[in-house]
Amino acid sequence: MRNWLKVLILVYYPVSLAQEKEGEIRHALSHKYNLDYRLNYFDKMIFKIDINSEVDNFYIPKLNYTDNKRSIFSPDEKLKLRFSFDYKFLGISYSFSPDFIPELNNQRANTKTLDLSFKFFYSDRLRQEVTYKKVKGFTLRNPDDQNPIEVFDDLEINTIGGKIFYITNKNFSYRAYESQTERQIKSAGSFMPSLTYFINNLYTNNPNSFEQNLERIKSVDFILQLGYMYNYVINKTWFATGGLHPGIGFHDSKNYYTNNKESVVFDNKIKWNYNLDLNFSLGYNQENFFSGIRVNYKNYQYDSKVAADIMNSKFNTVLFIGYRFNEVKSVKKVFEKIENKFGI
């Protein structure tokens, strides 16, 4: 019996490896990339958990709380827990701040957060991201010494938006950096032109501005960036990624006030938006297990600060761990039908 088992193992594994290699070759040929640079886990379902410190700090000038007329609203510095699922062209994630994760700073409001994202590839190099974010509970800080001034548990910001970008180098793997559905086998980089768009809605607890009650700020942004990213393969298990994304766009906002129970709408002028995104990551890969750390910085500046407005800058660190599981046949059939129909 044991001899038969050994024979089966010796027969099965070479056949299995040959089929896997054949599938990788077909995938590379259909998407026209070099197998020496990229390894795609097209037959794996990837589950990932990460803890991140993403904090949204909103700068709102012309609110009469500080001497220099520049106020900073920030949520409490809670760590977020995020669950992600990636398979073939689709990526879905859900993020929240559970009560069992401690706050990084207890001198802040009782912030509650919710993040949802939906990401997919139209083709091998054209990617679309859609996100929704809700943050409620902010602390007003003095911009000079960062000390808390007042807590606004009812202040809420809702953000919905998206990003579409194109990877110019077919041998560069953005998936290896972002979702670990691929591995970069040989170092490569790529320019990545992108269009980002989002709408912010801020609902206040009537902070006083211009002797009126500011109730709401609505802003719309469109941003064009010409970024560049590079995956550096250190060895068979370690890799690093760096990215620089400068851009320009325009920003439009409206302020909604109440003055003696009458509604007043103040239209801000359209402003130019100068922005910069920076990325860095260090990752570890085995055949199925992976982990790593990512650091991201985003800064958005406007050419005019004449009224109450939303200006967001953020810095965050992400620690992630995940595993690549074999695909489920029933799910595979559904995804293959979509791929064949739309040519993904």
Structure description:
The protein is mainly beta and 344 residues long. It has 3 helices and 18 strands. The strands form 2 sheets. The protein has a 16-stranded antiparallel β-sheet that branches. A two-stranded antiparallel ribbon has the order 1-10. The protein is elongated, with a radius of gyration of 24 Å. The relative contact order is 0.15.
Fold topology:
Layout: H1 2-31, E1 38-40, E2 44-52, E3 57-61, E4 70-74, E5 80-87, E6 90-96, E7 112-121, E8 126-141, E9 148-166, H2 174-178, E10 182-184, E11 188-203, E12 208-209, E13 212-233, E14 238-259, E15 262-267, E16 271-285, E17 289-302, E18 311-326, H3 329-342
Antiparallel strand pairs: 1-10, 2-5, 2-18, 3-4, 3-18, 4-8, 5-6, 6-7, 7-8, 8-9, 9-11, 11-13, 12-13, 13-14, 14-15, 14-16, 16-17, 17-18
Helix content: 10-25%
Supply Rg.
24 Å
Number of helices: 3
Secondary structure category:
mainly beta
**What low-confidence regions span 5 or more consecutive residues with pLDDT below 50?**
5-17
The shape is elongated
Content of β-strand: over 45%
Main sheet, how many strands, which sense, barrel?
16 strands, antiparallel
User: Whole-number average pLDDT?
Assistant: 79
| Amino- and carboxy-terminal Cα gap | 46 Å
H-E order: HEEEEEEEEEHEEEEEEEEEH
